[in-house]
Design brief:
The structure holds two protein chains of two kinds. By secondary structure, chain A is an alpha+beta fold. Chain A is built from twelve helices and eleven strands. Chain B is of the alpha+beta class. The chains are: A alpha+beta, B alpha+beta.
Chain lengths: ~325, ~775
């Protein structure tokens, strides 16, 4: 962290958006400070959003679904009883992120906008994502990198919340100099083939203000599971979020999203096409699991993620069936 | 010695309050007016010749007060057991944690900015990252004289004849990984010039007597011009020896150059990048066994990765060679242990010190033997275990109480081992999605330094005129509880409450060189010295009391803050401790005494590896119970039992603390810890990438303390610090075997090892390559 910056407390969202154009927005800071320390981010200005109460609401309106303010902390999401009951994937994802200390300050919006954990990106390597010419993971230490969707750059997206919200088909409210826009979370993340230097479509000055989660149909069940190497304070090796409707022992609708396998939270097409109409018995579960990541192209050290993801999908479906 | 007043009690730690309230001052908590801040310029190649260093741009940065390279070191730029660690890299770089130059500036940011402007011209050299490759004939040479740091041998009996006699042979190769100490507090030091042309160093050096010599030699000053004050330490685990000395001596050089106080501080990333690690080992084990489960011959070869500098490699691998056959009878032994230089981070002392690696191999082999003979892991160990009077592989006859069978049986009973082991190895369990397993391990350990070094420790006890007591010790507290233990010993001898004792900060001018606080020698050596010092003070008090009260000195007792006449039949209080103290001072008898603890003789023959390696040993046994997720390979620790014969527990709570912490550290070594380097570049430089067990990963633990007092220890006390950590990993991997039928031969037993039976990371130690870190 070798440079000076100004720190501003805007009093309104409009002011924040105006100031954020030439700086970084600052919420929990749990990722941004690390990026600054590692000499990856060099903002001239930090725009603190914590003084804006409108970003901190958790609301639920009949028919309209759930609205989660971008500045709600992960801990608030994890401990919210309504979410635990009706949207368990959200509280499970929030509760599995990081450590209690980080969850107390880390926010929903910040979690969605995290930058990758790739050790070449975070280290002293002039990699593709930092404007360099090559991806060092491709032929390097790539045990934790992506097995699908990598094209020149093989990061995985680190957010747990994004995986849960993708399965729940959430939308993001984004506010910026051009006004407000509403974007499905499935359109929010950017693959390396489109632009390897950014992870999201956010434009300068744009801020996620809230996340809208549609009310789930009756009979829906959601779940988030995360595989990590230690039981706390660890990013997902692979995560699976499912939000499914089950009728008469068979899946009637819904989605499964995967984390830790791709540069973006991943909706595997073949997997999701296999869901509807498939029975939640042993055969059906095996069929669904086998349909996941069939287009994976693992790197030298990460082929295990494919097995892991399929086994985890089995586990998730068994829990929903039982 | 049936009744003690304070020995054995669960007294609260004497340093606890300061630590939990924040009053304790760690190295970085010390600051002085006008102090400068240091920063370092790292090597850019793991192996290169340095052609030139251009500091001119750095010197121009406003706020910079000094930029130093090796040319600016007035005294010795080298140090170490084999003195090849460079304070500032001179002709070559040998790993990426080498520091080429240091800067002092008005603040850290300015210093770092200037350091980044230093330009170094290199000539790249071939690098080598595999110790076995480093020992090959055409390997790149890292230090003059070749890459072999040391080769230790043990020769006993005739292994060829032993293998002839054997009914079958078990031969396996094992690999262990380098790990980081992960002390809570990274290295820091503040150095300031004093008014007598000398320097004072405040820092968190584990072995401050060594640091003292290194800093004085580097500054070109006599020892009495350099004073070392050790701050409260936030952990060390063997790690703050040379690593912390390097930080302190660089600060000292900058302070000498600028004449101002200089603070040098490692961030976590700096700390992991620069500091030494636990040695990675490759271990080749071959046992010739008989049908009855006894062992006729052992042939063992181990190669340790010493990294860029020798550090403690000669001693670490010496402990390995002494203990490589475990606490088991075997008439024919041939062991060779090598350490080699590579361009990885150098490796040195870490809690365990050469034993965790060999214990992993020995205890895995023992379970393989049990499987072949068809008996349980407990039965096979009981069949081969040392008993009283046993002769070790080095020809040493064990004259103390050999409690190996006692700890094994206690561990098995406390964990219901035999029943569970049979249940879990059934097909019904192993085919489950979540099979359970239970694993046993045991070990013996030579206490203190042994024949590897001079072994003596000192302490000073001073009863002040009001009866309060200060203690200065050469053995330091880095979190293990040494002060509490020494205070209890002094309190027991003087018969006063613990609260009356105050420790002075360790200071190089106060107590004679007591050697390093390592090798689990704190209690037996430091505690022993404190006991002698307290007894020497008590002698002075006894003589005075005998005169004042006309009693026999032999009848005087010290307890409950009073002095008693215990003349056989009755006890009567003569006076309080304070009254006797006052009487002593009134008669011109100051109550100040030192105590020096020496140890029984040890000896060693380098060629045959025969001799009395250690003056006594300790014994322990561990049982781990796990549940394996067969779908993901994740292993969950369910229960852990850790049994240790500590001789005598001076404080049961601190012994248990050592055991719990040791299990967490040792199980982490077994399951997830790994310092990952790619062509010499550290990849795991903070705790997001370097995994240690969290509170969520630690199992339910049961500590069982066994006490067989030893004649060498204060009140019979021996050791627990390293025993606690050194046998946990094989207990875990033996449990995984019990659950899955698959043996883990490469640590750590992380998910890929358990699920796939292999490591995904390519062998980092691939062919020698010239490599460079991409410039920013």
């Amino acid at each position: 962290m070798n440079q000076q910056f100004e720190y501003i407390n805007p009093q309104s969202l409009d002011e924040a958006v105006k100031l954020a154009g030439q700086g970084s927005v600052y919420a929990g800071g749990t990722d941004l400070l690390g990026l600054m320390k590692n000499d990856i981010a060099h903002p001239q200005r930090l725009v603190n959003l914590k003084a804006l109460p409108e970003l901190k609401a958790v609301e639920r309106q009949k028919g309209k679904g759930l609205r989660l303010g971008a500045l709600v902390t992960l801990n608030e999401l994890a401990e919210n009883e309504m979410l635990q009951k009706d949207f368990p994937a959200i509280s499970q994802a929030a509760g599995s992120a990081a450590s209690p200390q980080l969850r107390n300050v880390g926010t929903l919006g910040g979690n969605l906008c995290q930058r990758p954990r790739c050790w070449y990106f975070r280290g002293d390597f002039d990699c593709l994502r930092k404007g360099g010419a090559t991806c060092f993971a491709m032929d390097g230490e790539n045990k934790y990198h992506c097995v699908v969707g990598g094209d020149g750059c093989y990061i995985v997206h680190p957010s747990d919340m994004a995986v849960a919200l993708l399965a729940l088909e959430a939308k993001l409210e984004i506010y910026g100099p051009g006004g407000q826009r509403l974007l499905p979370i499935s359109h929010f993340y950017v693959l390396p083939e489109d632009d390897p230097t950014v992870e999201t479509v956010l434009q300068p000055g744009e801020i996620i203000t809230s996340v809208i989660v549609p009310e789930q149909p009756v009979g829906s069940r959601s779940v988030f599971v995360k595989f990590r190497e230690r039981s706390a304070w660890d990013f997902a090796v692979v995560s699976v979020a499912a939000a499914l409707q089950v009728q008469n022992g068979a899946i009637s609708g819904g989605k499964i999203a995967l984390g830790g396998v791709a540069p973006v939270p991943w909706l595997d097409k073949k997997l999701n096409n296999t869901l509807a109409g498939t029975a939640l018995d042993e055969n059906g579960i095996n069929k669904i699991a086998a349909s996941a990541l069939t287009d994976a192209e693992p790197l030298e050290q990460n082929g295990y993620k494919v097995i892991l993801a399929r086994n985890m999908i089995k586990g998730v479906l068994q829990s929903l069936a039982g | 010695m049936s009744s003690f007043n304070i020995i054995g009690k669960r007294e609260p730690r004497v340093d606890a309050l300061g630590k939990v309230t924040g009053a304790a001052k760690y190295a970085d908590d010390y600051n002085l007016p006008h102090q400068l801040h240091g920063a370092v310029k790292y090597a850019e190649y793991p192996h290169a010749e340095i052609l030139s260093i251009d500091t001119s741009e750095a010197e121009k940065v406003p706020g910079v007060e000094a930029v130093l390279t090796y040319k600016d070191v007035p005294g010795a730029n080298h140090f170490g057991l084999i003195p090849n660690i460079r304070i500032l890299a001179d002709d070559h770089t040998r790993y990426l944690g080498d520091v080429v130059a240091v800067v002092a500036a008005v603040d850290r940011r300015t210093a770092q900015k200037a350091a980044d402007l230093i330009k170094v011209k290199y000539r790249e050299l071939l690098a080598v990252f595999d110790p076995e490759e480093a020992l090959e004939e055409n390997a790149p040479v890292i230090h003059e004289g070749g890459n072999e740091i040391v080769h230790h041998k043990v020769r006993k009996g005739d292994v060829a004849a032993g293998f002839e006699e054997a009914d079958f042979i078990i031969e396996k190769t094992f690999k262990t990984q380098p790990i980081e100490h992960a002390y809570l507090e990274p290295e820091a030091a503040l150095v300031y010039p004093d008014e007598h042309d000398g320097f004072t160093v405040i820092g968190c050096m584990q072995n401050f007597y060594t640091s003292h010599k290194v800093i004085a030699a580097a500054l070109g000053l006599p020892l009495n011009k350099v004073q070392i004050i050790q701050s409260t330490m936030g952990g060390s685990f063997g790690g703050k020896d040379e690593a912390a000395t390097l930080v302190a001596v660089r600060a000292a050089l900058l302070a000498q150059k600028t004449g101002r106080p200089v603070k040098m501080l490692s961030t976590r990333e700096d700390s992991i990048r620069q500091s030494y690690k636990r040695h990675a080992y490759k271990l080749y084990y071959k046992w010739g066994c008989k049908k009855d489960g006894t062992i006729a011959a052992m042939e063992i070869k181990a190669v340790a990765d010493g990294g860029a500098y020798a550090s403690m490699s000669p001693f670490v691998t010496w402990r390995s060679v002494v203990q490589a056959t475990g606490p088991y009878y075997c008439p024919n032994v041939k062991t060779d242990v090598y350490a080699a230089y590579t361009n990885n981070n150098f490796t040195g002392a870490m809690r365990g010190f050469g034993s965790p690696q060999v214990n992993f191999a020995i205890e895995s082999m023992m379970d393989e033997l049990a499987e072949r003979v068809g008996v349980s892991p407990l039965q096979i160990r009981l069949r081969n275990a040392f008993e009283d009077g046993a002769e070790t592989a080095t020809g040493q006859k064990l004259t103390h109480r050999v409690s190996l069978k006692e700890v094994l049986i206690k561990a098995a009973e406390a964990s219901d081992f035999e029943r569970k082991w049979r249940e879990y190895r059934s097909e019904a369990n192993r085919t489950k999605t979540f099979p359970k397993g239970i694993g046993l391990s045991c070990a013996y350990r030579g206490v203190s330094l042994g024949a590897e070094g001079v072994d003596a420790a000192s302490a000073v006890v001073y009863v002040q005129p009001d009866g309060s007591v200060t203690v200065s010790a050469g053995i330091i507290d880095m979190g293990q509880g040494a002060r509490t233990v020494m205070a209890q010993i002094v309190a027991e001898v003087l018969g006063i409450p613990l609260q009356r004792i105050h420790f002075l900060e360790p200071d190089s001018g106060r107590v004679a060189d007591s050697g390093p606080t390592v090798a689990s020698r704190g209690t037996i050596m430091g505690g022993g010295a404190a006991k002698i010092a307290a007894e020497n003070v008590r002698e002075i008090m006894k003589h005075t009391a005998a005169v004042v009260y006309s009693v026999s000195p032999a009848h005087l007792g010290f307890r409950d803050g009073k002095v008693w006449d215990d003349n056989g039949k009755s006890s009567r209080p003569l006076c309080t401790f304070e009254e006797l103290t006052a009487a002593c001072y009134a008669r011109g008898k100051p109550l100040f005494a030192s105590g020096v603890r020496h140890v029984a003789e040890t000896n060693w023959d380098e060629e045959t590896g025969q001799g009395n390696a250690y003056f006594t040993f300790v014994y322990g046994a561990n049982v781990a119970e796990v549940q394996v997720d067969s779908a993901t390979g994740q292993t969950e620790l369910l229960n852990f039992v850790s049994v240790h014969d500590v001789g005598r527990a001076i404080n049961k709570a601190t012994v248990e603390g050592q055991i719990y912490g040791g299990v967490a550290m040792g199980a982490g070594y077994g399951m997830m810890e790994e310092f990952i380097q790619e062509n010499g570049e550290a990849k795991t430089i903070n705790f997001d990438e370097y995994y240690i067990l969290t509170a969520m990963d630690v199992p339910k633990m049961k500590a069982v303390i066994v006490e067989n007092p030893d004649e060498h220890g204060p009140f019979g006390a021996k050791s627990v610090g390293e025993p606690a950590v050194e046998m946990a990993a094989p207990a875990v991997t033996n449990a995984i075997y019990n659950a899955t039928g698959r043996r883990v031969q490469n640590l750590p037993a992380n998910l890929e090892e358990v699920r796939l039976g292999q490591k995904l990371r390519r062998n980092v130690q691939r062919a020698s390559v010239a490599c460079k870190i991409e410039p920013k």
